[in-house]
Amino acid sequence: MAETAAPDHLPNQTAPASNDGEPLWRDALGECLRDLRHDRGEKLTDTAGRAGISPQYLSEIERGMKDPSSEMIAAVAGALELTLTDLTVAVAERLQAVRFSASVAAYVHNSAYMLAA
Question: What distance in Å separates the CA atoms of residue 27 and residue 63, rounded to the nearest whole number?
Fold first, then answer.
């Protein structure tokens, strides 16, 4: 049986990174929100209910499939008892950690290449 490609109107299951390999904001935001929700031991329905959004929409945000409005981000942050500043710092720290990890990996790769030469 031949594999068929997903229709153009369906979102990709894996969101692309930006051109320089850095994750997109929506991906980092979603991962951060999911981690914060899990840290609180909450289900999607718990957090989504307090934020006034559907659990399906929160799930799409957490998976990086939606670019939520600033109002939606504020609602979810509030449901997690965070300020927008707290959430923004947490996402920025996550992006910085990814950037640092990529820099270290590039350094190690380049060093190994120079040693082999």
Answer: 7
Which single residue is written with the structure tokens 């060093």?
111
CB 17 within 8 A of CB 23: yes
CA atoms within 13 A of residue 63's CA, in its CB half-sphere: 12
Average pLDDT, rounded, for the chain = 79
pLDDT, average across residues 75-104: 86
Q: What is the residue-wise DSSP string for the chain?
A: ----PPPTTSPPSSPPPPTTSPPPHHHHHHHHHHHHHHHTT--HHHHHHHHTS-HHHHHHHHTT-----HHHHHHHHHHTT--HHHHHHHHHHHHHHHHHHHHHHHHHHHHHHHHH-
Whether residue 111 is predicted with pLDDT greater than 70 in this model: the reply is no
Contact between residue 66 and residue 25 where contact means Cβ atoms under 8 Å apart: no
pTM for the whole structure = 0.70
